[in-house]
Design a protein that fits this description.
By secondary structure, the chain is an alpha+beta fold. It is built from eleven helices and nine strands.
Length: 313
Amino acid sequence: MARRYSKKSDALTHSLIAGSKPRRGIYKRKVSRQAVLSQLLGFLSLMLLVVSMVAVRFGYLTPHDYFWALGAVAVLCFFALAALFPATRDVLEDDALGAGAAVRGGFWAFLALAPFAYYGYAAIAYPKLNDISTDLETPPAFQALLVERANTPFPNGNLLEDGIDQQLESYPSIGPRRYSTSILRVAEAVQGVLKARGWRVKQSPPELEKKPAESADADGETKKDDTDQDEDVVQFEDGAFLTFEAVAQSLVLKLSSDVAIRITNLGGEARFDMRVANRHSAHDFGTSAALIENFLSDLDVSLLGVAGENQGG
């Protein structure tokens, strides 16, 4: 049976053969190069992710280039995690240094992969759509935003191409709202919600620029003339509508989604329709539908007392 020698005994044997005196108490452990490499690649992947996110948020990087940067992050993470296997072998079998470096490299790599895990889940959970509307037959049209949308990868969205059936199946609760009030009153509420959300308004109804007439009462205090307001309401014929166009931005990356709103007069009631189209990808990962649902909730609160009735899709 072959006799096994430790590294210390091997060093002693080598020194005796060489004719030199052995050093006592000195045993230098090697450092795992794979552990150091994993730590370096993990750190670089996390830093590249953070820098690219900051750059796209402040406009130094286009969303298209950001997606390329994400690809580079994924490659770095792959090699960082791949280096963990030989690093673990070095630490456990060869008693090499580098356990801490390997742990840090793996942690940073997994942290950099967090956005991929989120988008991967969203890609499965939500349909591949980038254009959602409460009106699938005649969705609100983009007019003022046509020039900006022309320079995007998806200027026309995919609502009318193949998205109607998918939207009906995935978002059955998204549909038009009807409010028992004038379209001008709903437009004022919409304007308030847009301002509260900080969306960039590209177009708004010129009727909102008209201020109601004021008159003085017996005490000398001014008050709004309700008669003039009623006349403004009456002037809208059945089927007349008011429109808004705005640009919404995501919270972290400030990626843009275009919003078109139409408020239609139907027999003295107001029908509200909204369309949201993502500019930058064929899959919005559920964000467009979420924007519509949250906006409708805020609008219902603003119009408390004339709460909207969901007409369904």
